[in-house]
Amino acid sequence: MVVFFKWFKKDSNLTDNNSFLIVGLGNIGPKYEKTRHNIGFRIIDFLSSEKDINLQKSKLGQLGILKYSGKKIFLLKPSTFMNLSGKSVKYWMKKKNIAVKNILILTDDLNLDLGIIKLKQKGSDGGHNGLKDIERSLSTSNYARLRFGIGKIKYSSDKVDFVLGSFSKDEEEKISKSLEISTKVILSFIKNGIDNTMNMYN
Description:
Radius of gyration: 17 Å
Mean pLDDT: 90
Largest sheet: 7 strands, mixed
CATH architecture: 3-Layer(aba) Sandwich
Strand content: 15-25%
Helix content: 25-40%
Number of strands: 7
Shape: globular
Low-confidence stretches: 5-12
């Protein structure tokens, strides 16, 4: 009986290779809803709408569950604000026993032209505070991220105002197609793996 208990305890800590955690980065509240910095939230909202998924208020975020290609996908919008995103990511990764390789972070990127999408297997935080906190919380930068271009700025001093600003009407029209493509990249990441997906979409 004692031997069985030890085995069960060990097995319960194993990661689930059939579960994925897709995290859109952003700041909570109407004030930030349409800002460039919240494009990660918008990708989650777009995918949830496409797949008729209801996001429910949960611990440290809003969470939805999608079944796709025999996999269970947790869609997360952290409620910790951008700079503390890692707290929410780590909590749900541990709670659902999700491997780091099955995590995909959706983030805005100042170094990409508007609407350009790049999938990366790992990398630096690029000065992004949300990614910095995730790396700090997970003790690794080896997690996948989908970088969504929000446009480039000429002067670094304008960075905060730019990322917390809203898209223009013309920009909104341009990113609508990219939001659609982003959902296809996410589903391919789950079904086909990151290497095949990067070859298809990068």
